[in-house]
């Protein structure tokens, strides 16, 4: 998936659909039936029909469609006819959504190393790059080993890109490792070894797009940014827009909704973003949302309207086995495990199809992830 301009387009291991991975696209919602908890599985068409008309008036009092809903959530004075649902002022960050969500995060969030107090820009940048398309459990050991060896950008910049690729191991999408190494060199040479705090400067780094820049600025430096990974987008789609899933590509409507919900204060904005991200990973998941555990379920437009099903286009699931990406991953694994160059013919043990193997090798050479040694041998850079 491309998140905020970053293409997670390299391989080594199959991309793992996991809602806990930052910036990760969920499985095709049209192909994955929604599994509501037992408390909510009884929501029926009759309930939706009985309740939708009054609620729709409530949500669109200030205008039709999702824009009206956004205005209601943000308005400092407007309240809904259902006082149990909208009995507080709705301006952020003192409205009904911010406080319960952040309080829930404070008590329920996972203890992840990149979220701990004192975590700096380099640690956050490394975590965000690793978490693209990759679940937390696979990232944790590689993250710890990476920072133990390269605690600063300068330390990584002194080593080779091949060292970075070896350390990346089987994390998948190894082009991310090459880009992180390139970013470390730019940080060392152009920013005096310190990861910049400004989102625009962050976006000047190799492999850093809109999402990663916003996340680093928010979580490392408490800058006010709009952090929109897949988990946050899904939470906002349900909470504000009344949709089971966001559109495949980020829309101006989503961006406006997110912008208006982010508090003005940088620290509060960061708290809101990480709490929404964690809610999407643990509770408001793609396949089995646990609405009874959600701290803002009483404010959720999707829930109030009877959980309308996703009506967007069906998306094909990702394939891996037998593809060129799979072949490239096998070749890279063989090169990582070798202390020296490996002859092309030897790589036939890793992949039987000679035509596909040569095609994969040539693409790896073009991408700079392997280098030619002599007439027929290959090695990591």
What does this structure look like?
With 381 residues, the protein is mainly alpha-helical. The chain contains 16 helices and five strands. The strands form two sheets. The protein has a three-stranded antiparallel β-sheet. A two-stranded antiparallel ribbon has the order 1-2. The longest helix has 17 residues, at 266-282. The protein is globular and about 65 Å long.
Rg calculated over all Cα atoms: 23 Å
Largest sheet: 3 strands, antiparallel
Category from helices, strands and their pairing: mainly alpha
Number of helix segments? Answer: 16
- How far apart are the termini? 26 Å
Strand content: under 5%
Helix content: 40-55%
Outline the low-pLDDT stretches.
1-35, 37-68, 74-91
Estimate the mean pLDDT confidence: 80
Oligomer: single chain
Helix-strand sequence: EEHHHHHHHHHHHHHHHEHEE
Strand order of the largest sheet: 3-5-4
Task: Provide key terms for this protein.
two-stranded antiparallel sheet; mainly alpha; 3-stranded antiparallel β-sheet; single chain; globular; 381 residues
């Amino acid at each position: 998936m491309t998140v905020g301009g970053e293409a997670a387009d390299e391989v080594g291991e199959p991309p793992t659909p996991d809602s806990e991975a930052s910036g990760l696209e969920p499985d095709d919602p049209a192909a994955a039936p929604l599994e509501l908890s037992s408390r909510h599985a009884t929501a029926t068409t009759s309930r939706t029909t009985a309740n939708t008309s009054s609620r729709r008036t409530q949500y669109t009092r200030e205008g039709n469609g999702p824009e009206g809903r956004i205005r209601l959530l943000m308005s400092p004075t407007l309240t809904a006819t259902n006082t149990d649902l909208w009995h507080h002022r709705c301006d952020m960050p003192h409205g009904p959504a911010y406080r319960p969500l952040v309080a829930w995060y404070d008590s329920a969030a996972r203890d992840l190393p990149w979220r701990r107090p004192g975590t700096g820009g380099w640690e956050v940048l490394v975590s965000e790059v690793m978490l693209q398309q990759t679940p937390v459990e696979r990232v944790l050991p590689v993250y710890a080993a990476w920072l133990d060896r390269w605690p600063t950008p300068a330390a990584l910049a002194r080593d080779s890109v091949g060292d970075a690729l070896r350390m990346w191991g089987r994390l998948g999408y190894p082009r991310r490792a090459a880009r992180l190494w390139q970013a470390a060199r730019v940080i060392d040479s152009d920013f005096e070894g310190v990861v910049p705090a400004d989102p625009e400067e962050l976006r000047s780094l190799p492999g850093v797009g809109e999402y990663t820049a916003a996340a680093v600025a928010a979580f490392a430096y408490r800058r006010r940014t709009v952090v929109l990974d897949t988990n946050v987008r899904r939470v906002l789609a349900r909470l504000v827009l009344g949709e089971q899933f966001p559109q495949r590509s980020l829309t101006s409507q989503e961006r406006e909704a997110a912008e208006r919900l982010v508090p003005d204060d940088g620290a509060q904005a960061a708290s809101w973003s990480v709490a929404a991200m964690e809610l999407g990973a643990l509770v408001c998941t793609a396949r089995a949302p646990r609405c009874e555990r959600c701290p803002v379920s009483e404010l959720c437009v999707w829930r109030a309207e009877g959980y309308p099903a996703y009506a967007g286009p069906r998306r094909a699931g990702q394939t891996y086995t037998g593809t060129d990406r799979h072949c490239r991953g096998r070749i890279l694994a063989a090169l990582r495990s070798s202390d020296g160059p490996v002859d092309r013919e030897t790589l036939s043990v890793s992949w039987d199809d000679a035509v596909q193997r040569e095609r994969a090798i040539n693409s790896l050479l073009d991408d700079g992830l392997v280098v030619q040694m002599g007439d027929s041998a290959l090695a990591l850079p």
